[in-house]
Amino acid sequence: MRFIDTHCDALLKLQMAKRGIQQPKKLLNFENDLELNTNLERLQQGGVQVQFFAIFIHPDVPTNEQWQHALEQIDLFYSEIIGKFPQIKHIKQWDELNDLEENQIGAVLTLEGAEAIGNDLVKLRHLYRLGVLSIGLTWNHANLCADGAEELRGGGLTKLGKSVVEMNNNHMVFTDVSHLTVEGFWDVMKSAKYPFASHSNVRTICDHPRNLYDDQIEALINHNGQIQLALYPPFLVKDAESARVSDLFHHIDHICALGGEKHIGFGSDFDGISYFIEGIEDASKYEFLREELQKHYSEELVRGFIYQNFKNHLPHV
């Protein structure tokens, strides 16, 4: 079986190392650097068939430098990941997922938070041309498109944000709801053709602003959307710094009870987190997760959770 992981922050780690942020300047080796939860060797060991790579701009970056930071991460994606390893194939259109060979890993470029484009939709069109296939309007704070999950006023989408959703629709690009406020989520659901939660969990079980209420989960199910569960302990158990696989299963079971067994997947959040589920500390440990899943769920359900559900809900003309 092959895994699809819809969120990691390896590009940010690569950029921070190259810029010397928090440590001396160096270039991380994507092949096997142990600082990367999602290096090539670990992806191969874990049987990852498709890995999403997020462009994420740290909130400390000044506004006038955000676009440059985004371009730097894209350049690292092309030079240090795609350019150096022929077994990694850049997925620029969804149907290319079906062309992956057994020994290939598909790499999908995404945007986590629209800070980098400001109010310039030309920049957004550039991102589409560069192969970005999923756009999250916010991180946890507010920007010109929407309020993020931890913004105190809890507002929804702006006129600009609604324009971005419409452009995503036209380009068959996911609109990622994972970091939105509740109001922003419902604004997206009014118009998005391809709504998607890249790394969120169940708020009924763990009351965290990054998780989804039951009616939000049901709305995603009804709109042919997907709920990719994060492997981050504070999203699984309130205020936890560690968790067990059984804690993840509580979230899976709850979504299944809501009718979403065919809409579940995984978005690890590796390289953006410092706490882990016991036994799943990096991408190489997906085999352990698969084995644990098979102890509790049917072969068909497990196949769906780890890759088939995602493939069954791809945008199409």
TrEMBL record:
<dbReference type="Pfam" id="PF01244">
    <property type="entry name" value="Peptidase_M19"/>
</dbReference>
<protein>
    <submittedName>
        <fullName>Dipeptidase</fullName>
    </submittedName>
</protein>
<dbReference type="InterPro" id="IPR032466">
    <property type="entry name" value="Metal_Hydrolase"/>
</dbReference>
<dbReference type="InterPro" id="IPR008257">
    <property type="entry name" value="Pept_M19"/>
</dbReference>
<dbReference type="GO" id="GO:0006508">
    <property type="term" value="P:proteolysis"/>
</dbReference>
<dbReference type="GO" id="GO:0070573">
    <property type="term" value="F:metallodipeptidase activity"/>
</dbReference>
